[in-house]
Amino acid sequence: MKITLDPGHGQFGNPGALPGYYEGTRVFLLAQALKEELEKYRDTEVVITRKTIGDNPSLASRGGEAAKNGSTLFISLHSNAASNPAAHGVSVFRSVKLPESEELGRLLGGAVVNTMKKYTEITYLRGVMTRTDDFGGEILDYYGVIRSSVKGGNVKYSYIIEHGFHTNLTECGCMFDDHTLKELAKAESDVIAAYFGLKRKDEPDEPVGYVEYTVQPGDTLSSIARRYGTTWRVLAEFNGLDDPDLIIDGQIIKIPVKDVIYVGDTVKLKDDKTTYFPGGNPFPGWVKDYYYVVSKTSDSKGRPVYRNGDRCVLLGNKINKRSGAHGTPINSWASVAYIEKVK
Fold first, then answer.
1. What is the dihedral of CA 27, 31, 36, 39, to 10 degrees?
2. Do β-strands 157-165 and 73-80 pair in parallel, antiparallel, or remain unpaired?
3. pTM for this entry
4. What percentage of residues in the chain have a pLDDT greater than 90?
5. Whether residues 19 and 127 fall in one domain
6. Number of H helices and number of E strands within the chain?
7. Which of 45, 199, 244, 245 has an alpha carbon within 20 to 30 A of 215's alpha carbon?
8. Whether residue 192 is found in the same domain as residue 80
């Protein structure tokens, strides 16, 4: 995916509460660190609107660059200011045109707060907000960088993130620290990677199979994804769905699963689990002394079986770990989170 980062202002824009602090310089350095973190992931390209620390492009050209270069995500990086030196906290502004971007905005704001609060003890999330104005009878985003970024419809997530107040001595000190900037970059990168399902370049490829799910009345791609611990974006891409909002009853959705468990696989129980599934009966002491052959992974209609929200498979014949001899079946449904394949 392509991401555009916009370090606000110019090099000496907006001095802070501490001598030598300039918002434009600190957020430029933050953008460099965030770019470095994000480009540790595969198929990720990061563009920075200020090519050098001395650049100060117009607001329209900052957001417009993201609109033109095909970015999915645009983030304008800032620290805030107020006449009251006690004002503090992190603010996130999103586009009024993109209400679905609220969730990621909240996650990003939370990551910034959690990082800064370790040092300031006062930082909190002031909110994920929109600010609008009337432009010739049309209500649009007040902030020019956001307004210009969403023109054309390529950018799906557009934000201004105010990393605390540089007019507040404590939060200014936090943003003035190079180590903290790197921590912020890592925290924000982690959120983006998790949200979009990005894979690190240094991670080895793992075999990925899939299980099939039949769409039921009332299902959405998001609700299906939650049941399987993934995201609707992953499902949409894996199934080649051009419109993730358009799924119909009876449609087969393939769920990518690492180390998929099939009928006939040999499995063992993980040592740190004591029940068959959440809220279920405890494992008898002898259960962990055997391997098991999986006898079922779905019900008679081919639907995954759940127990208290966990997808389960039916354990069958016991296998003696030493001799390999098969014994009688146990016939108990066990959560796939509690078992693993025997290699």
1. 160
2. parallel
3. 0.66
4. 69
5. yes
6. 8, 16
7. 199
8. yes
Answer for the pair 79, 16: CB distance below 8 angstroms, yes or no. Answer: yes
**Tokens at residue 299, please?**
């019900």
Which residue in 230, 232, 223 sits closest to 208, CA to CA?
230
| 178-225 pLDDT per residue, tens | 999 999 999 999 999 988 888 888 876 655 678 888 999 999 998 888
* Listed residue (198, 208, 206, 202) closest to 231, CA to CA: 198
Distance CA 340, CA 343 (A): 9
Q: Give dist(CA 49, CA 298) in Å, integer.
A: 51
Closest CA to 337 of 295, 316, 308: 308
Domain range holding 291?
A: 266-341
Q: What is the DSSP string of 173-242?
A: HHHT-HHHHHHHHHHHHHHHHHHHT--BTTSPP--EEEEEEE--TT--HHHHHHHTTS-HHHHHHHTT-S
Most confident of the ranges 164-178, 265-279, 310-324: 164-178
Judge if 115 and 21 occupy the same domain: yes
User: Does 90 score more than 90 pLDDT?
Assistant: yes
Q: What is the mean pLDDT of residues 13-37?
A: 98
How far from the centroid of its chain's Cα atoms is residue 80's Cα? 25
Write out the two tokens for 255: 């769920």
Token representation of residue 188: 């924000």
259, 245 in Cβ contact below 8 A?
A: no
Task: Tell me whether residue 257 is exposed, middle or buried, using C-beta atoms within 10 angstroms of its C-beta: 0 to 12, 13 to 18, 19 or more.
Answer: middle
